[in-house]
Amino acid sequence: MFTHRLDYQQIGRAGRDGLEAECTMYCNSADFDKYKNDFYLGGLSSEARSNQEMSIESLRTYSMSDEACRRAELLKFFEETPSFGERCGTCDTCVARSMHSDDIERDFADNGARLILYVISILNGKQGISNLDKILRGNKIESYRYSSPYIDHDVVKEKVNHMKSNMTGYKKRVPVTYFTKDLLPALVNRGFVEVQTQSVQVNGRTNSWSGYRLSMAGHGVLQSGHIVLPVPASIREYEKEQQEKIQKSLDDLKKMGADTDQIPKHELEEGDGTVFKAIRTWYNYLDLLQRNGRTTRIDELEDLRIRIDAWRMDVAAKYRIAPADAMPDHTLLSVAYAAASIKDGRMEKESLLAAGVRSGGIDDLVSAINEWINLHKETVDSVEESSKSGCAMIIPNESFKPKEAWEYFAYKPQKKTGLAAWESSYDRFTAGEHPQTIAMTPLSGRPIQVNTVIGHIFDGMLSGRAVDLSRLSTLSTPPTKTEWDTLSRMEAETGISVTGDPQTSGKNGEGVRMTDFVGPILGEEFMSKEYSERSPKEQADFGTWCALFKWYSTLTRIGYSPTFQAEGAEADV
Asked: Which helix H or strand E contains 252, and what residues bound it?
């Protein structure tokens, strides 16, 4: 039974030898509800069951709190008086209080707390964490779960996104668990949210879960006011991880030659902002070109930057102002990046004005940029044209075996077969079977799509196993040079890292999703449409880019640098 007594026993076992020991408890609020089911309490008398439920609730409060001394609270539960006073000085809450004495509490009102309160307020008071998560992710839930039948999902989604966007710094990118597993327990402990055990009979058994609703205090701060909460340890850990990521990003930028001193202090602290993004996008793009062997293009972009900088210096001398006043460095990089992506047409004066360029002589800047575009237009046009012919990826004739598995690849064998879900398809493909045959007769016995089989083969490559790329390329067309460059540019523009942790390297710190990566290629109109609203051509284009993304992400993750045929050469695949 999951109670204080069991917790006390486990802690005691860790310290029997009298030496220092560390005891860690892994749990979340929902874990405590399952121990209230009939499976655990069904055979108890009414009084005994009530006592057990009280003990479980007491342990929940004890475990979810980031304020009280763990040791003192445990002793008090057994009606013992702590000999050390109110704080032991060694449990996690006491250590955190000592290490962060000037940051024990914060106002989380605009950094997630009010958002959680809003989501709880629109529900019927019987919903658990899973439905809170769904709303926070923008997913639909059944209408009966809301507090009113007139609540519109699209309106809720828009408000949730708006409240998320108003969060400060990298907290805009926190995963959904930040709200439900980190802040929600603190809101409960501080009395803003009430928890009531809900139950339902299923096949003669009682299933229980925690339902959340606002207290009077929660309603009082729903629209405005401070929501001061203790800082959970998990949030400190998350912030430490984010700061390490920011520092790594800054170190990488410095190695690539970026001047990070021009980034404002608040952007450095948050890892976000106009200047930070402009510098990161430009240098990430150069780095991707370097990794792909596009040294000629890098030289062309440096020529573009020099031309814009020369215009800036002339304006500064003419009007006797600092070059940065004529055009800030980050604006220069943004203008250069935009100009580099123009494949048809020319730079327009109105576009520069919209980008914040206000200096005199802007017509000369337009001319300088368009002169560069015209000079390199032949290169751009020939690459685009060659996407249908000469610049196909060169595929080796022999099987390719990665040096090692991708860092974040997880091998998960199934209990029934002892193999990973992808493994049978991969083995059969390697043995010479056609994916169509594999799709029609999979190990599970349930037919699957050919594209699923192809995805399994890519998974095999991520696991570090050899794959016949030549044969694979006859089933799934690899990216051309232009398409590869487009995907590389999307990685730089979106900030989505295909080589990073797939659970946190996506948009807003969440998982990597193909729609977030591929969508911008197809345009804003495409992104604004629901799947059912997309035309057959749009759906086909999306599917094509998803397949190309699979090639790009897999080869990038295993460290494979593709080469492409020279312009005018005949494709061999």
From this structure: helix 233-255
SS3 sequence, 128-146? CHHHHHHHHHCCCCCHHHE
Structure tokens at 162: 């708006």
Chain length of the chain: 573
In this predicted structure, what is the pLDDT of residue 381?
A: 38
Distance CA 87, CA 68 (A): 8
Dihedral pair phi/psi, residue 358, rounded to 5°: -125, 5
- Tens digits of residue pLDDT in 359-388: 788 999 999 999 998 888 644 333 334 344
d(CA 469, CA 560): 12
What are residue 409's phi and psi, to 5 degrees? -75, 135
> How far apart (Å, rounded) are the C-alpha atoms in residues 276 and 282?
10
Compare 34 and 324 and report the one with higher pLDDT: 324
Backbone angles phi, psi at 272, to 5 degrees: -160, 160
Distance CA 228, CA 442 (A): 55
What is the distance between the alpha carbons of residues 542 and 366, in angstroms, rounded to a whole number? 35
Q: Rounded to the nearest 5 degrees, what angle is found at the Cα of 60, between the Cα atoms of 56 and 62? A: 115
- For tokens 């479980």, what's the residue? 56
Looking at the chain, the whole-number percentage of residues with pLDDT higher than 90 is: 35
This model's pTM is above 0.70: no
Q: What is the pLDDT of residues 280-317, one digit of tens each?
A: 888 888 887 787 677 888 999 999 999 999 999 999 99
What is the Cα–Cα distance from 36 to 197, expressed in whole angstroms?
9
Contact (CB, 8 A) for 184 and 29:
yes
